[in-house]
Every structure is written in C-alpha cells, then in structure tokens.
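Lab channel / #folding
Pinned by the channel admin:
"Please post every new chain as: sequence first, then the structure tokens as a reply. Keep commentary short and put observations after the output so the thread stays searchable."

First post following the new format, from NK:
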Amino acid sequence: MQNRLIRVCFLLLLSLGIAKAQPYSLKIGKLKYKGGGDWYANPSAVGNLARFCNQQLQTKIDPNEVVVEVGSAELFTIAFVHMTGHGNVVFSREEAENLRQYLISGGFLHIDDNYGMDKFIRREMKKVFPELEWKELGPGHPIYKQKFSFPKGLPKIHEHDGKPAQAFGLYWQGRLVSVYTYECDLSDGWEDPEVHNDPQDVRLKALQMGANLVQYAFSN
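Reply from TO:
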C-alpha cells in the first residue's frame, strides 16, 4: 500500500510540474550512459512512440526526444525512461544508486537490447539491484494485455541469432520497475519507416507493444 501511494504521488507531482510549462503532461526520456555503447541509437524511435501513444491511448506525451543522464536529478522528472544500444554499458556507483532511487520512487525503465548489450546490461543492473533477478515475462503477463493483445507474448521485430524474443522484468516490492526486451529489437520498429524498411504490420506490432509498456507503466 505504501509503495502504491509513493507511486501515485510521484506521477501526480510529475504531471502537475510539467503541465505548467507546456501542453504535454508526460515525457519519455532516453537514457544516456557511459561505457562506449551507442545510447543514442534509434533517434526517431521515442518520438514516434510518443505520437502513437497520443493517438491510440489519448496520452499527452512530449514527442520531442528528452535525453537524461543516469546520474542526473532530471531523471526524477520523467516517469518512463527508455534505454537502448548495441554495446558496452557502465554505471558508476553513484549512477547506480541514483537509478535505484528513481525506480523505487515510482519511475519505470524500459531496456531494449539493440543487439550486443545483453551481457553488459545484466552486469550493470546488478549494481542497481544486487538483490534482484530478472524474471521472464511470459505470454500471460499483463504487459501483453493492455490496449493491444499479444497472446503469444513479445513480438519479434528483427532477426539476429535465431533466438525467440523474450521480455524480462525486475520487481521491487511487488511492482514491476523495469522491463528488458531481448532478441526483439522493439525500438527499431518504432523508427521512421524508411530506416529499416520493415513491413507495415511488423512496425505496427512494435508500436503497439511499446504502447502497452507505456500504458502499463503509467497505470501500475
């Protein structure tokens, strides 16, 4: 109950603070991290997801990309943060603690392996939550049953190693605080159509799954 109250207060204050400055009441942040990995990958993805959510979910998410650093105070002004890349990720002790406090205070982190960051993100998230383990989110999980239905679980957007697409979650005191999408390339499917030339139905599935994540994060 206490954790739920903290979450509600976090989102309420966040919404009130942003609404005074602009017509958008929410932001999706793009996480900037150290280590040499390309945190800046998929530059059109977040904006396209925001616009899709505004159309389909009637949200008011700023479509302009907002870059936020792991160790910054600005992190606490954004309810949903997206992270991607292909390579190395490094969190300092201070950054890991800041990210931990953000997540247990009501924030939400979506990590999308753009191919090549798996071993690094698993290592670095252990700095954030050394006591937690990633749990696979199978087809029955609520993230697949929001506005859009995915009865078979996480959709496969791009092929790499012939492995199935998987989603994993970190739970803090019963609340899902982070979702990690692996072997999926979900945010590639959010990019402008000409970037990857994905079939329209594949791109639509990626945006719908992204919208489900946003809806789940803002309502739980």
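NK: The beta strands are 28-32, 66-69, 80-85, 108-113, 135-136, 166-172, 175-182.
TO: also worth noting, The helical segments are 2-19, 45-56, 93-104, 118-128, 193-196, 200-219.
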